[in-house]
Design brief:
Blueprint lengths: L4 H11 L3 H10 L4 H19 L6 E8 L6 E8 L2 H4 L2 H16 L5 H5 L2 E2 L4 E2 H12 L4 E8 L5 E7 L3 E9 L2 H14 L11 H17 L4 H19 L5 E2 L2 E5 H8 L1 E10 L11 H11 L1
Antiparallel strand pairs: 1-2, 2-5, 3-4, 6-7, 7-10, 8-9
Helix pairs in contact: 1-2, 1-3, 2-3, 3-7, 5-7, 9-10
Length: about 290
Amino acid sequence: MAISAAQVKELRERTGSGMMECKKALTETGGDIEAAIELMRKTGQAKAAKKAGRVAAEGAIMLAVSDDGRRGVLVEVNCETDFVAKDAGFGEFAEAVVAQALASDVEDVEALMALPMAGAGQTLAEAREALIAKIGENIQVRRVVRLDGAQGQIHSYRHGVRIGVLVDVEGGDAEVGKDIAMHIAASRPLCVSADQVDGDALAKEREIFRAQALEEGKPEKIVDKIVEGRVRKYLEEITLLGQPFVKDPDLSVEQRLNQAGAKVARFVRLEVGEGVEKRQENFADEVMAQVRGA
């Protein structure tokens, strides 16, 4: 049967898919729009499975904090290219994911994706598959991290869409909370204070510093003093309280907090693509391979 332009238009508006894909689905289902939508959803799931192995190391860190400032959540949503990360459909999906994460108490991605997407009549997993079919890239919700039951107030900062921070601050005000969140985004501390540093890791650093001092020819009698000095510097570099405050390097973060009568209980920081091995494209090799194959 002939498929009308009006049918194709309606299906495009309801699915967001391309014209040719809509026309093909309508042809296969004899012009039945509901059947075509179901077929396209099934096809979308197949496309999603095919694309699941492709590296998704771009995307956005989404954050949300409850109105009372006692709960917060960070979610990493990945795609393959920076271009798609700026797509409105991708942004709407990412916003829906973080909103549902805040509204629920889920702590892992699998449980989060099984939840319904508000106003969509489908789960977040199904919405992801539909988005993959529409955009044509692998899209993954990679991580969800929560801060619940704050000891103080949860403050947040997002640098563009690539870095997100939540920090639980007791005392102080909104300004110091934002300052500390911004500092964490910029300086990447590993923990709040020196007593939170893993003992085994610290012992290994001491061994390294000792070996370096001896290799440098330092006298044995002062090696221990040199090692301890380097350990102190190392702890200042990796702990929030020991770092120079980014807005006033003459102060440590601890001193800035003391000025405000505040204390950091804990924090979380996520950055897009951390730990994801990106495929390195060698375009010269790619061209040569095409030439050889021609």
